[in-house]
Every structure is written in structure tokens, then in C-alpha cells.
Design brief:
binds adenosine-5'-triphosphate; disordered C terminus; tRNA-specific 2-thiouridylase MnmA; tRNA-uridine 2-sulfurtransferase activity; cytoplasm; EC 2.8.1.13; NIF_FeS_clus_asmbl_NifU_N; alpha+beta; Rossmann fold; single chain; 4 domains; 502 residues; 20 strands; SH3 type barrels
Length: 502
């Protein structure tokens, strides 16, 4: 550490208490963990450079000195250059902090990144690439897939800028394991910098809570089995990143999803990835064609082993990082604890009954059961029993045999079709399920009250209300809908028409 420089920043505290007009705020740290810092960053009139910087802190000397050094450093700096700064650069400004004080540089880098991301989102504009090449925004989660996308974008596209979304903070969660927590963002930022890319952080915590977590809790309360990733991709994170891409002058957004896009005369459609096991078209089905037109999925033609190989060849530190498993906001917790903590949905024991109403046993709370589930019923019977449905109003779980569960008719609600529904010849009813031969039947008239149903060629072991039905023609997605409760529709045996709403 350069003692003189450190003392200079500690006493001059450049920018302390300043509150530039129109500044974006970035906060890092909590009182619980010790230091809290708040950086206010205002852009200059061009929107491409930092104007003034101010800050406040309840923190140790190393953090105060780091803040002062950063404020001095970034004033007047081009936003793309600021987006290349990380904890190591903050540290370098003070001639290197001792290992025990490095957290100060990390905290200040976090606050700076948050302030920068908000400033850019609100009114920033990045300078276009000097050589006139197109710019791509790369969605980086810190995992191997998006790291390889960044690698390919860097090689193949002219100019690539990385973005990581901060979606969720839950102190009771193990943030290290969530793909979208503050720690994960920090990791992704360091990875992007290591790969020579500018990196921006986009704080979508409010939008994520309102648009994904709240509906997830409401659906659980109603006894449905929601799929929050579809909502998140379709209505929250990809839309927000595309808007952000506009701000950055990026025509396209590249992600590490395993999917392909088919560009036809009638506009783009999603197509299943080459790697059938990794295929994520189901998760992306709610994307509108307009959004799809700007998306790039560079991994759609690759298999996961090939992706890992590319990462290893490039010596990316994430080459063997395990894939993310569960919903990002459930990392470090479990569904029932989460429901109890965030929605007051407590486990309320009730009856398990057969379809005639005869009591078979007890359950620990209907929210923990989903249609088709076999495990965890704890009921001894001659034949294996499955959940046929849940009845939230009566807090009952109805169980029955596989034959009772089997159905060829799946009611739909809120269908969105990008092509004529008569073209549907397969449906995917769960993320990891195989597409099943099927056709669409229902009211021919498009409109909000339209009733549609999937007619399957072969019976399926139940379809969980609340999950998504991905409507396909071959391996191309031509629409999607939410699976409704049986009995909720009176289908007409007519081919459905093309419509953008259902
Ligand atoms: N927090 C995030 N910020 C930015 N982009 C993200 C974030 N989470 C996911 N993505 C993007 O969505 C893609 C698919 O996300 P998914 O959650 O399926 O992760 P994944 O398959 O584990 O990918 P990865 O290995 O890149 O983490 C990622 O590859 C990345 O491009």
C-alpha cells in the first residue's frame, strides 16, 4: 500500500458529502456486515462520461480512502472505461491494500457498478465502437454457458459489452449459490473484466419481485404449479436487457440459452436446440417475435460438452462450474420455507382423499403437491397412487391411480399463437419432458375468452395446472399457453386460427 496516497485520500476524502444533481445512486454493504457506502454518480451533458461523483459512508479508513480515490479517478471518465473498473483497479489506486482490507475495494467497486448501471439505464449512452462494427450486449450470469457466449461474441462480433442482472436479495438465502445475487454479480463482473470486456450491472430487484416472485407466491396460494422462469424470461429480464441494449447502442442481445431462432418470411420463431437434453426453448417460449428478432443464442448449435471444451481451451475459470439447478431465488432455501417466509403460506395439514372423497391419509400442506406427483404421498395402497389434483379451498389433495390420472385433454388459458393453431402437431407440457404428438382444438374465434385445449394422441400422466404448454410444429415453437384446471373449458372440435392473443 502507498501510505502517503492512502493518507491523502483519507484526509482529503474527495467527493465526500457531495450530492450532484440528477445523480444515480449505488449502495453496497449493510449495517449488519459493517460498512455501508453510497455513491452518487452524475453524467455530463453528453451522457457518455461521468460528470460529478459524491459519496457517503459509514465505514473504515480503507473504505473511505477507496471511495475518495474512485471519485477522483472516474470524474470525467468515459462510461465504457468506468465499466472496465473492478475491485483490483480500486485497490491499485491506493497502491494495493493489504489482503485483510481488500473487501473495502470490493465494496466500493460494487457501489460504483450499481450507480453506473442505474445512470446508464436512466440516461446514459455509450460511445459507438470506433471501427463502426456492430455492438452486442452479452447477458453474463457468471456461469460457463454465458462465459462461452462472451468468448464467441468477442471473437466473432465486433464489439461486445457484458451485463449482469441483480434480481434477488434475500438475507436468509445462501447468496453465493444464487445466479442472480450480489455475490454472483460480483463474480460475473470479475469474469467479464478478466475476458477484457466492459461490464454493467443492472439492478432489477424491484421488477423481479413484482413481476416474478409475487405471481409465483400468488399461484402457489391458488394451488397452482407456477413456472417463474418463463415469466422472468418472457416479461422481465430479457425485455429489460433489450431496453438496456438500446441505451448502449447494441442491436443484439446474446445469451447462453440453448435454443435456435428460425427466421422466416413471417418473422422469427424459436427452434429447439441441437442438444436435446439442454434445450431451453420451453423457458423462452413467452418471448415475443419482436424480442426474438434481436436475440442471439450462440450455443443453440452446440452440445454442452462442446461448450465446456471451448471454455477449457480458453482457460476460463468457469469451465467446470456446475450448472445451476433450481429456481435462482430458491438457492440456499427450500420451497416451503420460502413460501412461509415471503407469503405467510404455512404448511397446513389436511386430508388426502380418493376421487370419491374417501379419506386415504394426511398431507402436510397442499402447496407441496403437484399433479402427477407420486412420491411423498405416504399412502399405502395396492396400486401406486398419484396426485390427481389439489383443492386449495378445502385444503385437500386428491389422489388416484395412474389410469385415473391419464388424460388426452389438456385445457389451456391465455394462449398466444404466432402462427395458425392448426399447425400445432406437438406439445411440451413440462420443461424436461419430450414433445408429445398433439393438436389444438377449441373456439375458432380469437379473443381474450377463447377456449382452447390440447388433444394428445396418447394419454399423458396428468398435466399440472399453472405450468406452461409449449405449442410446437415439429421442433419450432409457434405458441404457448398456461395449463388450466380440468373442467375449466368446454372445447370445440375445431382447428384454432392464428392469433396473437388467446
Ligand atoms: N443474472 C443474470 N444476468 C445476466 N444474464 C443472465 C443472468 N442469469 C441468466 N442469464 C442469461 O440467461 C442464460 C440462461 O440462464 P440459465 O439460468 O439457464 O443459466 P445457465 O444455463 O446455468 O447458464 P450459465 O452457465 O451462463 O449460468 C445465461 O447463459 C445468461 O446468458
Amino acid at each position: 500500500m502507498d501510505r502517503e496516497l492512502f493518507e491523502h485520500h483519507l484526509t482529503s476524502a474527495h467527493g465526500r458529502g457531495r450530492a450532484p444533481q440528477g445523480a444515480a445512486i449505488g449502495v453496497a454493504g449493510t449495517r449488519l456486515c459493517g460498512d455501508v457506502v453510497r455513491i452518487a454518480l452524475a453524467l455530463d451533458d453528453s451522457g457518455r462520461r461521468v460528470g460529478a461523483v459524491g459519496w457517503e459512508a459509514e465505514a473504515c479508513g480503507a473504505t473511505i480512502a477507496s471511495l475518495s480515490a474512485v471519485a477522483e479517478l472516474v470524474e470525467g471518465m468515459d462510461l465504457l472505461e468506468v465499466a472496465r473498473l473492478g475491485a483490483r483497479d480500486v485497490d491499485a489506486q491506493l497502491g494495493g491494500l493489504s489482503a485483510g482490507k481488500f473487501h473495502a475495494a470490493e465494496l466500493v467497486a460494487d457501489a460504483l457498478a450499481r450507480a453506473l448501471g442505474t445512470a446508464v439505464r436512466e440516461r446514459g449512452a455509450l460511445a459507438p465502437p470506433a471501427d463502426g462494427s456492430p455492438r452486442t450486449l452479452v447477458a453474463m450470469s457468471g456461469g460457463v454457458d454465458s462465459a462461452v457466449v462472451a468468448l464467441l461474441a468477442g471473437r466473432e462480433q465486433g464489439d461486445a459489452v457484458a451485463v449482469t442482472l441483480e434480481l434477488w436479495a434475500d438475507e436468509a438465502n445462501d447468496g453465493e449459490r444464487s445466479c442472480c445475487s450480489a455475490q454472483a454479480v460480483r463474480y460475473a463482473r470479475a469474469l467479464a473484466h478478466r475476458m477484457g470486456m466492459a461490464h454493467l450491472t443492472l439492478d432489477l430487484r424491484d421488477e423481479f419481485r413484482a413481476g416474478v416472485v409475487t405471481p409465483f407466491l400468488e399461484d402457489h396460494r391458488a394451488g397452482l404449479t407456477p413456472n417463474p422462469c418463463i415469466r422472468c424470461n418472457g416479461h422481465v429480464r430479457l425485455d429489460a436487457m433489450l431496453e438496456f441494449a438500446d441505451r448502449l447502442g447494441a442491436a443484439t442481445l446474446a445469451t447462453g440459452h440453448y435454443a435456435r431462432v428460425e427466421h422466416g418470411a413471417d418473422g422469427p420463431l424459436l427452434r429447439a436446440a441441437v442438444d436435446a437434453w439442454k434445450d431451453q426453448t420451453y423457458m423462452l417460449a413467452a418471448l415475443t417475435p419482436d424480442s426474438l428478432a434481436r436475440m442471439r443464442f450462440p450455443l443453440g448449435e452446440l452440445t454442452k460438452p462442446q461448450v465446456r471444451e471451448l471454455a477449457a481451451e480458453a482457460q476460463l475459470p468457469v469451465a467446470s462450474k456446475p450448472d445451476s439447478q433450481d429456481l435462482c431465488f430458491l438457492a440456499g432455501t427450500n420451497r416451503s420455507d420460502f413460501l412461509a417466509r415471503h407469503a405467510g403460506i404455512e404448511q397446513q395439514p389436511g386430508e388426502i382423499v380418493d376421487s370419491g372423497g374417501r379419506v386415504l391419509g394426511r398431507h402436510s400442506g397442499h402447496h407441496g403437491y403437484t399433479v402427477g406427483q407420486r412420491r411423498g404421498l405416504g399412502v399405502a395402497a395396492e396400486e401406486p397412487l398419484y396426485v390427481l389434483r389439489t383443492e386449495p379451498a378445502r385444503n385437500r389433495v386428491v389422489a388416484g391411480t395412474r389410469a385415473e390420472l391419464a388424460t388426452t385433454a389438456v385445457p389451456l388459458r391465455g394462449a398466444r399463437l404466432h402462427r395458425d393453431g392448426a399447425r400445432v402437431d406437438r406439445v411440451k407440457l413440462r420443461y424436461r419432458a419430450k414433445p408429445l404428438p398433439a393438436r389444438l382444438v377449441g373456439d375458432p374465434a380469437p379473443g381474450p375468452h377463447r377456449r382452447l385445449e390440447v388433444a394428445l394422441e396418447q394419454p399423458v400422466d396428468g398435466a399440472a395446472p399453472g405450468q406452461m404448454a409449449c405449442l410446437m410444429e415439429g421442433d419450432v415453437v409457434i405458441g404457448w399457453a398456461t395449463i388450466g384446471r380440468p373442467g375449466a373449458v368446454a372445447p370445440q372440435p375445431a382447428a384454432a386460427q392464428s392469433s396473437s392473443s388467446g
